[in-house]
Task: inverse folding
């Protein structure tokens, strides 16, 4: 009984952890390559889920609905870069922070008006007949969530390490001026990064919607936890995945063995402690930020 | 080029001013009723119907010529399911909008917080939220239209036991509403000598509830009682079924409405809860004194706002009580004058305590100075979710 309970808590932790990790990767893709802390990342997650729900309610079957949901979110993300990020005359982190937060509220507001404030639900992709591990229950949707994380993280690592455009992205993240000098079009790179983050966020929002529901307001919390995970993971893909899963597991096991009432507080407490310790080592991040100026 | 544009604008502006001026000259100033509900946020799925129900009643009264020759005007405030917003909104309604009375408040936490400014601002407030702490102990200016949780839970417990439940688990949202649900449930269970097998809570807006369900399962419970709002109660049901829980599930009537049914789908079959009579208006006996108002609200609501939801009942009742009390105020008092508004408020409050029996949606009200709710025990009907819709149990 004890073992299967532990497995159950771990499954629930890994599920939410995977989502945190994907959202964290969205943050770091945009931040590393364009220096923008995109506070509307969580809204991409929300958009993915809500748009897919919308297309399904219009009579599309699952796969086309997912495709259009992701495509529309990518378009929104790229439009956002083009309309509100690129025209900024005096770019600084604070400006971007304010602009992206505002853009996020606008997206949230539009969805609220267009789709209403109700919570929405997408049917599980592979049905809901559970897989039993001892007495613990594993839902097929959880397998999808975890495989999506593996695919996204693996694909991104491959892409950044083994393709020319991927290397160009990494070059721009290391030194924007230098990258521009050797002929990389920074604007195009940044546009691509926003699209990529939009797409990945949307996918996260879609695969989690059958388990955790979706609604106009889910973006805020998902986005924040993603930021925390990206910070903990040191803005690298591998680090973010590890940090995401660790935070998820901590929440799941903490809720199971300590107290369910403490679930969110526990995660936040560990996060604060970690961040306080981390400030001692923030110089590396600062260097990274200031290099863009 | 500029001049024509300017003159067109001016003409419009003057026109508008004239029209609105004429409008006011013809009519007497309306009685403003503040309706404070959450239209966004976690409690929106009950707040919106509550506003709709209130508007149905206000339109009714206005169509019949208003009260004392004056129309009613709804001033809606969105408290977003947040106690602090409810306090600010309530203060605004009292001090700026000069409403004669306050209605709405579907969210217990917001209502409890808003009592403070309402009492301090000497404005009668009729709430439509489930907690009985709003009217017990009696407060000078606060009234409630919602029947007691305990009576409803007694009915649910009956049907649980009838279906053979031995160990009952309680899971509730960690907010005012859920805590009161837990207290009420353990109170009625205690009275029958039953001890709750396990109690679990979760935070409002949580996204994962499987640890709590695992606890409940490992405690060996065969029935789950949920004290929560629509999205999270639906999540409890779905998660419980996904994790292989096969027992009975039921819960507080806050889940009533179409959204819950859509969210739980097949997993919700057999869910047990209670309802005020309007929701089953068609199935009531002809001799039922509430049949007329219940059918009336149900028809108007579904015509104007689509699918009927529980909040509509509370919204209708809050406005109905206020309007009954307004009828007996001095018709000479002018709600456009601040000093008269204060007098109207006092009279509305005093009248509310002396209305005699008023037929409402939640039951037959008999408010007295000691009982600011005035509902009897027979206000609820047991409901079960069957084939995708609510049926009388």
Result:
């Amino acid at each position: 009984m004890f073992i299967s309970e532990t497995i159950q808590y771990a499954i629930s932790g890994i599920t939410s952890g995977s989502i945190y990790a994907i959202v964290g990767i969205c943050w770091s893709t945009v931040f590393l390559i364009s220096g923008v802390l995109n506070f509307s990342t969580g809204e991409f997650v929300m958009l993915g889920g809500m748009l897919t729900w919308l297309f399904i309610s219009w009579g599309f079957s699952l796969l086309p609905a997912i495709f259009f949901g992701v495509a529309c979110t990518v378009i929104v993300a790229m439009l956002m870069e083009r309309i509100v990020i690129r025209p900024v005359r005096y770019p600084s982190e604070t400006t971007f922070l304010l602009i992206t937060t505002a853009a996020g509220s606008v997206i949230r507001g539009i969805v609220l008006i267009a789709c209403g404030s109700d919570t929405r639900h997408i049917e599980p992709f592979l049905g809901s007949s559970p897989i039993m591990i001892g007495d613990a229950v594993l839902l097929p949707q959880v397998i999808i969530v975890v495989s999506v994380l593996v695919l996204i993280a693996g694909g991104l690592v491959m892409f950044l390490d083994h393709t020319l455009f991927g290397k160009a992205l990494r070059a721009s993240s290391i030194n924007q001026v230098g990258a521009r000098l050797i002929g990389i079009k920074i604007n195009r790179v940044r546009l691509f990064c926003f699209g990529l983050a939009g797409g990945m966020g949307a996918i996260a929002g879609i695969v989690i919607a059958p388990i955790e529901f979706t609604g106009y307001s889910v973006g805020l919390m998902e986005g924040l936890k993603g930021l925390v995970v990206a910070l903990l993971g040191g803005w690298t893909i591998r680090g973010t995945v590890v940090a995401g899963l660790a935070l998820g597991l901590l929440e799941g096991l903490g809720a199971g063995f300590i107290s369910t009432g403490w679930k969110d507080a526990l995660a936040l407490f560990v996060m604060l402690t970690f961040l306080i310790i981390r400030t001692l080592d923030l110089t590396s991040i600062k260097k990274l930020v200031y290099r863009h100026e | 080029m500029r001049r024509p544009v300017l003159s067109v604008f001016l003409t419009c502006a003057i026109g508008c001013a004239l029209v609105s001026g004429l409008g006011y000259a013809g009519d007497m100033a309306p009685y403003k009723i503040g309706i404070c509900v959450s239209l966004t946020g976690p409690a929106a799925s009950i707040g919106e119907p509550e506003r709709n129900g209130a508007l149905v009643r206000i339109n009714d009264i206005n169509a019949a010529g208003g009260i004392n020759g004056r129309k009613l005007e709804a001033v809606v405030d969105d408290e977003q399911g947040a106690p602090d917003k409810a306090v600010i909104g309530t203060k605004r309604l009292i001090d700026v909008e000069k409403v004669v009375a306050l209605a709405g408040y579907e969210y217990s936490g917001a209502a409890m917080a808003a009592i403070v400014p309402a009492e301090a601002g000497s404005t009668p407030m009729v709430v439509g939220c489930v907690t009985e702490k709003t009217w017990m102990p009696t407060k000078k200016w606060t009234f409630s239209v919602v029947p007691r949780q305990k009576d409803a839970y007694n009915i649910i417990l009956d049907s649980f036991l009838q279906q053979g439940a031995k160990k009952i688990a309680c899971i509730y949202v960690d907010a005012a509403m859920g805590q009161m649900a837990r207290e009420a449930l353990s109170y009625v269970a205690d009275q029958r000598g039953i001890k709750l097998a396990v109690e679990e809570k979760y935070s409002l807006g949580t996204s994962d509830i499987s640890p709590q369900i695992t606890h409940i399962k490992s405690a060996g419970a065969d029935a789950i009682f949920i004290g929560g709002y629509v999205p999270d109660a639906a999540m409890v049901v779905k998660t419980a079924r996904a994790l292989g829980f096969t027992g009975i599930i039921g819960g507080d009537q806050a889940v009533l409405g179409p959204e819950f049914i859509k969210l739980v789908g097949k997993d919700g079959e057999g869910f047990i809860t209670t309802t005020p009579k309007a929701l089953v208006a068609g199935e009531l006996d002809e001799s039922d004194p509430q049949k007329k108002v219940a059918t009336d609200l149900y028809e108007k609501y579904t015509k104007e706002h689509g699918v009927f939801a529980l909040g509509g009942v509370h919204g209708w009742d809050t406005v109905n009580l206020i309007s009954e009390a307004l009828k007996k105020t001095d018709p000479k008092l002018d709600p456009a004058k601040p000093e008269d508004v204060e007098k109207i408020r006092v009279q509305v409050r005093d009248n509310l305590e002396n209305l005699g029996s008023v037929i409402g949606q939640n039951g037959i009200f008999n408010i007295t100075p000691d009982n600011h709710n005035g509902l009897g025990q027979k206000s609820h009907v047991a409901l079960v979710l069957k084939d995708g819709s609510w049926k009388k149990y």
